[in-house]
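Worked example (supplementary).
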Amino acid sequence: MKTGMIILAGGIGKRMNKPIPKQFLILAGKPIIVHVLEKVEQLTDVERVVITCPAEFVAETQKLLEHRNLAGRFSCIEGGETRQESVYKGMLELGACETIVIHEAVRPFVTLAEFRVLIDSDFENAIYGTRIPFTVLAGHEYVEDTLERSRLVNVQLPQKFNAEKLMQAHESARADGIEFTEDASMLFHYQEARIRILEGSERNIKITEPTDLIIGEAIYNEYVLGGAQD
Amino acid sequence: MKTCIITGASQGIGRAAAVRLSQEPDIQNFVLLARSASGLEGTVSQMNREGKNIKALPTDLSDIDAIEPLVKSIYDEFGSIDLLLNVAGYAEPAALLDTTNENIRTTYFINVFAPIVITRECVKYMRNHPSKILNVASTAGVTPRPGWLAYASSKSAVVSMGETLTSELAEYGIKVYTISPGRCATELRRKLAPEEDPSTIMQPEHVADIIATLVSDAETCLDGQNLVVRQLPAPKR
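After joint prediction of all chains, the assembly is encoded as:
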């Protein structure tokens, strides 16, 4: 298989204060994850798509797939206890492939064009990132250090990696007992891999906080539906 | 080339729409649904059949569980579903106190539940290519009609359905139209107003012309509205 994809849908929605994971909350009339699935559906050159989600939501996710005639190329498995573990389980489920694309269910405004640019690019490893428009400092209760904003990047998904090298990095991290918050950091840490940063989009937000749902409705109306309806 | 499904195609507006749309060169495949096999045959006999694939399927749409395999079989046979016209309607006028549960059940199954289910199933195949859905409501759905409670309220539901679907399906490029015909010389109207002379009111062919305009590629501005289609009475001189 040339290209496989993992869609991370493992969050449990603590910050949303909702009884269901945020990827199943309704945004613009449908579960957030469906916005992603309907775009990935059009990536016909991605041969398999594995969704990792909490065990109790596997059946519900399968239903979402069936209702859209997506079962088959798409499948859903129980994710791991951590994001990193979910990616690892997703890779095992995908099996051998040259390239792995990773996206997360709570970034519903990724565009088909962004997926295409990522997949079609010649870079073996590539991520999306945006500049950081605000000041970031190191510290907890007190400021401990300053960070040079111009050297930082706001990391977004989707991301694309050489599957074999990513698996090696995961195996190393598992052996070392280290948890990474996303895969580019891990691949760079273990392999000093050359990872291209593609220009991301401000609208490709991650729905994390309750406010993000309100912002998300506005983004949907403006960018998906094309603006004012009156 | 487009595939068009028309419910209620055995008579009235459904039949007139099938006949009118069969004149359109870009619609090649027609699937006509209604309970009456003989009514469907009558419709087919009036259609332009040259270069058209016309499939008449006697169907009881109130059996909503049968709709999913039906739509799948249509898609499997024709390879696309581009136009859906929900025309089938049922009316059994009665005062509230005389309205039976069976009346309510049948009215809502035909007028509301079946259109929702067939729309849901068709959208599975319409997503990601420009397509259109047209629902036939009624002026009874937006104005009080004593003695027509089941029918009038079901048509209100059709109006609401059109508004919601317009927003929900916009992302897919599916346009949704709702028309509310006023007095129209159909069999259904005869049940609602048996004393009326049908020659004095709007004919199904008038409505079919409007439908043909709405489902044409050229029409891009009238979706999402409840369009009242009516012919004002001739002035009395």
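Two points are worth noting when inspecting this output. Helices of chain B lie at 12-21, 37-46, 67-78, 101-126, 149-169, 187-192, 204-215. Chain B has seven helices and seven strands.
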